[in-house]
């Protein structure tokens, strides 16, 4: 199934298809209005930036991950297993 949201225009298309009005859009936000209640909400963050695309965010995350040095996981200490039979039982 193809992704419905891959950039900002597709976000606005999904919101309008859901019945919301979009009275304002800035560089990093979109204001949505519910036409039934007249209630407004401002959607902010990286996802709502003008230049946001799914490909950009994936490549940014990959670059961040590759830039971080690999940290080895500490060795785990294993606890001794408990006996599954009562102490003093004959085998």
What are the salient characteristics of this protein?
single chain; 91 residues; alpha+beta; Metal Transport, Frataxin, Chain A; 2 helices; 3 strands
Describe this structure in words.
The chain has 91 residues and is α+β, with helices and mostly antiparallel strands. It has a three-stranded antiparallel β-sheet, with helices on one face. Strand 1 and strand 2 form a beta hairpin. It has a domain of 54 residues: Metal Transport, Frataxin, Chain A. Helix content is 26%, strand content 16%. The protein starts with 7 loop residues before the first helix and ends in a 24-residue tail after the last helix. It is elongated and about 80 Å long. The model has no long low-confidence stretch (mean pLDDT 83).
- The radius of gyration over CA amounts to 26 Å
Mean pLDDT: 83
Distance between the termini: 58 Å
Q: Under the CATH scheme, which architecture of the domain at 8-61 would be assigned?
A: 2-Layer Sandwich
Q: Taking strands numbered 1, 2, ... along the chain, how are they ordered across the largest sheet?
A: 1-2-3
Secondary-structure element string = HEEEH
Write down the oligomeric state.
single chain
- What profile does the largest beta sheet have? 3 strands, antiparallel
Overall geometry comes to elongated
CATH structural fold name of the domain at 8-61: Metal Transport, Frataxin, Chain A
The share of residues in extended strands comes to: 15-25%
For this structure, what is the CATH class of the domain at 8-61?
Answer: Alpha Beta
Count the strands? 3
- Contiguous runs where pLDDT drops below 50 for at least 5 residues: none
Helical amount: 25-40%
Structure class:
alpha+beta
- Number of helix segments? 2
């Amino acid at each position: 199934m193809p992704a419905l949201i891959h950039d900002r225009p597709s976000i606005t298309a999904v919101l309008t298809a859901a019945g919301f009005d979009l009275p304002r859009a800035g560089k990093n936000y979109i204001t949505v209005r519910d036409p039934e209640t007249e209630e407004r909400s401002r959607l902010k963050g990286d996802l709502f930036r003008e230049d946001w695309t799914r490909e950009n965010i994936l490549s940014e995350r990959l670059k961040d991950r590759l830039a971080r040095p690999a940290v080895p996981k500490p060795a785990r200490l294993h606890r001794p297993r408990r006996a599954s039979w009562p102490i003093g039982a004959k085998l």
